[in-house]
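Researcher: Going back to the complex we discussed earlier. I've cleaned up the inputs and rechecked each line, so this should be the final set. Can you rerun the prediction on the complete assembly and write out the structure?
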Amino acid sequence: MFNYTFRWNQALNALPQMLDGALVTLQIALLSMVIGVAVAVALTLFRLSGNRVLRAIAATWVELARNTPALFQIYMAHFGLGAFGIHLSPYASLLAGIAFNNAGYLAENFRGALKAIPDTQTRAARSLGMPAGQAFRLIVMPQMFRVAFLPATNQMVWAILMTSLGVTVGMNTDLAGITQELNARSFRTFEFFAIAAVIYYVIAKAVTLAAQAFAWRMFRY
Amino acid sequence: MKTAVVAGLLAATCLSPAAHADALDDIISSGTLRCAVVLDFPPMGSRDADNNPIGFDVDYCNDLAAALGVEAEIVETPFPERIPALMSGRVDVGVASTSDTLERAKTVGMTIPYFAFQMAVTAKDGAGVASFEDMKGKTVGATAGTYEAIALEEQVKEWGEGTFRPYQTQADVFLALSQGQIDATVSTSTVAQANVKTGNFPGISVVGSAPFDTDYVALFAMREEYGLLNYLNLFINQQVRTGRYAELYEKWVGGDLPDLTVPGTYR
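Model: Rerun complete. Updated structure for the full complex:
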């Protein structure tokens, strides 16, 4: 039997604090995507390169990022590096962990997107006299981003939700951290978690819709 | 029509035979007492080499179950999950070193204190923290949701400099301290001594006491379960007067037995 009387007024008083936390959450997610995309492009180039070492680095990164829990990656960024005397703040640990995860998944997205672009695109570009690098940069890469864009928004949503794992490394300014603290003080667990869930939902939904609108405008043939 | 109403009432009565049984009845008739215990909080709760739960809180739950004539079931519950565990019906009673704040008592039913903690400062060697005041301006941390975490965070805000970091478990706090991620922590002195003694966390020492009020901790149960809360209060009283409280204290902590009464007031 669920025996609990909801008291919303007390929880709603804390809403401004929670919305401040939501901004931090969104900020971390956005930054992690920017870093993630940059690293993922580098990893994709590593994979295409003839250099065996670079290919191995990219393959290892993608394997680790995709096949270990995000919680583990964030925890390692804090306590794992900490064991070697490298001290990242909770914010930096969380950002590093999520960016690591993003880069691995996005690199896979980009690889899939590249496969979807016919070879003839490159050949046509080369036949126009473009060097290989230029052909990739001007012809292939923009198409790669277009194909990978909507799948990548999934990763953005995932990044927003992953920020909630920051509480394990002492993060107390994001939405999950603030919610946990409010909960610890008052024990009004269900109200605070319900509000947090709604805020996460709204952010995630808004990001998805914004991405769809953006894609609709940008990527029409 | 009338017969339908009567039949309906009869059915309702028959279908809800447990309607008047309270939590105390439920525990006794189920034969099991489920206690929420925090197991990364030595010496109150931890696991031995064979992974069995041990500690003051574990023994306390076992005593309570014995008094009720039922089996004890220890449900491992991290600090932040104590209340969800109770509210969702996974545990009957919290034996989880829970500070009896007025804010929390609006939500759960607190018993009289069954234990009392003094607060101690533990610092990373070489961080330049030799007393509570030295923590000003440093990076400090504590276990999220505990009495000392709330007090320490307020203190950091009052100092206006330094950083406070809440970690989810007591073990993570000492790990962060040992690695130098934080310079100092405030925890209950019993927990600080026990953790420093394990040797799992090199390079940290207890450097002094923290000027926070005595942290009285209570058992908790559903707020409206007066029958159960009443029983728990009497049980705590009996533990003290039979000498069992002193015995358990000597077994797990040692030293001066904390007084559970507050001079000059009732309860």
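Model: Worth noting: The radius of gyration of chain A is 21 Å.
Researcher: Good, that matches what I expected from the previous run.
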